Amino acid sequence: MIVLLLRNIDQTLGLCNGIRLIITKMGRYVLGGKVVYGSHIGEKVFNPRLSLTSSDLRIPFMFSRSANVYLSSPVFSHGQLYVAISKVISRDGFKILITDEDGDHTNDTSNFVYNEVFCNV
């Protein structure tokens, strides 16, 4: 299965947010993978397993990943909203407020793709 890396770990190895990997090994503290997209295709990489739980009993709360998004105008970049949503692990951790041009709440937004970006690709 191909997975998507959700944080910048090491740019020199190509381990940046959005890179695609195939997980080849799962250890207690590290994940091994093979890059399947970008300039480092085929390279084997190791990523630390990151946990948001703390074993420190002095901390009276649990860490959680959440995202709050305010869209006062339509999404301006292909995949921008996807990146925001992909940062959370459950629906409870994601809140979104979308307003229209009059400032009223709405449930709709547009995802614009500018074809000019792809002209020289």
Automatic annotation (TrEMBL):
Domain DNA helicase Pif1-like 2B residues, every copy: 2-25
Pfam families: Pif1_2B_dom
Transmembrane feature ranges: none
Superkingdom assignment: Eukaryota
Keyword terms, alphabetized: ATP-binding, Helicase, Hydrolase, Nucleotide-binding
GO molecular function: helicase activity
Tagged with keyword Cell membrane: no
PANTHER family named among the record's database cross-references: ANIMAL RPA1 DOMAIN PROTEIN, DNA HELICASE-RELATED
Protein name: PIF1 helicase, putative
Species, as recorded: Medicago truncatula (Barrel medic)
